[in-house]
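Quick start: read one record
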Amino acid sequence: MVFSLKTQKIVTLLITLSIVTIEIAASFNSALLPNLRADLVISEQLAQWTISATLMALAFSGLIYGVLSERYGRRPVILFGMLLFCFGALGSAVASTIEWLLTARVLQGFGAGVGWIVGNACLKDLFDGDDYTKAMNQVHAVAGIVPALAPSLGAYLADIIGWRLCFFLTFLLGVIALIAKIKKLPETHFDQKQIPLKFLIPTYLGLFKNTKYLVFTSIKVMCVMLLFVESANVPLIFVEHLGIPAKYYGFYIIPVFTVYVLGSYFSSKLCQLFSIEKVLGAGLLSMALSNILILVFDGALPLFFPNSGTLTALQIQGLKLLTYLGWGFVFGNATAGLISSAPGQAGAASAMMIALEMVFSSLGIYGLGFFFNGSIIPLSILMLGVSFFCIGILIIGKNYYKLRSRQN
């Protein structure tokens, strides 16, 4: 079905609004970790698990939302998910114990899954080919502004009004997004497939037979995992070990996410000149170089300046500019590539992507928690290893495509 330009703009705006609301909630949670930990008197690892619990719920919900949106349409599923998100945000705001908070965060995560998952499918309903790739990069660019501004705002507000009212603000934003969708969001998926729920697993397993989908998905999943692990560790490193006041933490995030937004914008331009694979490769190399520099300078700095200790927060963020540039090149293009590689299965393909992202992100946060020592070293080692792993996946996939084309 061909949609009017007005419909395309309205739906894109509403999808972006829901994604931005969800991103604000995620960014607030990472920025509020020090305040939350102190108020509830919990360990650093348990504080990080409040993020892991949300991600696991988001992953599980994604597997359901994707197929349900194919069967019942995008609109009702989006409205249901945003309603759950609102209840979870309100529950987080009034939580008095860590058990209560974890339960509320699980509910919020279950609702949040609808944003990117069904949102991706809606955009695929509206756009095709290069237009879809361009739309995805634009949404990622706008959504990327949130992690640049929300941590500083969240940390500042937490210092003034407390972390509970910050969660209440996400509840209000969720209500606004929900009302806007009730009034303005049209249905975009009319070729609804009456897929029996018992076929959920076979539907998703079928995606693993699609080699191109696996290549793009592997890269996107691993890179998103790195972003969430960073969000769970850097606030604690900067605030509790490098002495940055919690209310100022967000200001260290603005420059790197500004570079991410610029990277997302320019990557949409680069894809008009080069293949998605080449742009992805450039992004992954940028991430690898960034973490090589961090490891070299963090280890070598005391040799040249004996009283310097490790890198300062400002020096770390300066070297991380290349990491965020790489993410800007990867996220939108990898998403567009994997959705486009599964025609007719936009909802399921998006759901599987988000589910894997959240599972690996949760495991990544949990796993790195055992190596957390207050320094940037464990995180940078993980980032470097994953960057090279993704480069290897990209090279193997490219060679596989060439082999298949020769055989055909």
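The chain has a mean pLDDT of 82.
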